Amino acid sequence: MHSKIGLSVLDLCPILSGQTATQSFKHSVDLAAFAEGLGCRRFWMAEHHNMSGIGSSSPEVLIAHVASATKRIRVGSGGIMLPNHAALHVAEVFRTLTALYPGRIDLGVGRAPGSDSRAASALRGGRGLTAENFPQQFSELVSYLDDQEAVVAVPSHAEAPQLWLLGSSDFGALMAADRGLPYAFAQHFSHLPALEIISLYRDHFVPSRWLEKPRSMMGVHVICADTDEEARELALSSDLSFSLFVQTGKSIPLPTVAEARAYPYSEEDWKKVRASAMPKFVGSASTVERQLAPYLRAGVLDELMVLTMVHDQGARRRSYELLRGFLS
Question: Could you tell me the CATH number of the domain that includes residue 84?
Answer without folding.
Answer: 3.20.20.30
